[in-house]
Amino acid sequence: RTESAGGDHLCPESPGEGALTPNGSAGEPGPDPGGIPAAPLSQSPSRPSRQLQATPAIRVRAGTLLHDGDTGLSLTMHPQGYPVVVEVRPDSVAARAGFPSTGDCIVKVDDVSVHRLSIEVLLAMLRGRRNCTFHVIHDDDITAFALQAAPSPPLPVDLGLRTVSLSRGPTGLGFTIRVDGRSGYVVTALTHGGAAHRSGHLAIGDRIMAVNGHSTAAMGYDQVVREMSAGAHVSLVLRTCH
Q: What is the pTM of this model?
């Protein structure tokens, strides 16, 4: 939970009732030492009052999910650079926990700020952890939060992730995958001269963490193949595991 300073009202000092003015009696102006009568108090110019505007408090909620790599969250990116939960799968860990909820904006996972972190990399990061503490705010507060937040530090660890974009060639994408237990989907072969081989960015043993922004944690083999075959271009998030 974050708290903001309250709004203090600063007003100019003025003589209180019964206060003594220079060289005069209570409430009555007297002549100054030079003999020039002092102006009546009512004619003295007053300073405009200053008011400090209170910054609305933004509530940051935190909760830990124990999961098997699939939280059941569908995310989209807010213009301020934070992921927002747009859907929670009914049978998921998040649905059973009641957290995070639709409309929640994720600002941090464990000790890592997710500001400007792509959804593909975030999903891959979640899959690589078996329990995560989410720090969230409601998306109505995200603009104010972004203005108050300090610049995001770089990720403290190298997640070993990279994003690769491929364009389908005459022989397709030019690589094959297999299911490898808890490792998920692993590249097992490259077609010589194919799109993956020519790109130079895929290698046998690479683990596919996300396809076109969708985590492979909740996808069956046929779903992964369909997603990679859906268009002329495909975006993959890979983790080097060899």
A: 0.46
